[in-house]
Amino acid sequence: MSSALEVADQPVMSAALVESVIAWLQQAALKPAVGSVDHAERIDRITQLERSKAVSAAVQAHETAAFARCQAAGVSVSRYQQEHLRRSIAGQVALARREHPRS
Questions:
Q1: pTM (2 decimals)?
Q2: Whole-number Å distance between alpha carbons of 37 and 32
Q3: Distance, CA of 56 to CA of 80 (rounded, Å)
Q4: Cα 26 to Cα 21: distance, rounded to the nearest angstrom
Q5: Cα–Cα–Cα angle for 6, 3, 21, nearest 5°?
Q6: pLDDT tens digits for 61-76?
Q7: CA–CA dist 34, 20 (Å, integer)
Q8: In whole angstroms, how large is the CA radius of gyration of the chain?
C-alpha cells in the first residue's frame, strides 16, 4: 500500500507535516458544512477521528521511547546520575506534552 506520505516504503514524518495536518483539521472544523451531511457520514467522521487519536497516541509513544533511547545511548553514569538522566528525559518529554514535569 502506497501513499503520498511514503518514500521508498519508508514513512516520512516531520514536525512540519504533523503541524500541517493539525492546521488542516482545525480549519475543517471551523468551516460550516456545505449542504446537509447525513448521520452516517457524521458517524464515519467520528470513527475516523477516533482512529486518528489512537494512531497519534501510538506514534507519540514510539517517538517518546526513541527519544529516551537516543538521550541515554552511550551514557555511562553512576546510579545517582542515571536517576538524574531519567528525570531530565522525563522532564523534557513532559514539557513537550505540555504537562507538568514531575520530579
A1: 0.71
A2: 11
A3: 34
A4: 9
A5: 85
A6: 999 999 999 888 877 8
A7: 23
A8: 19
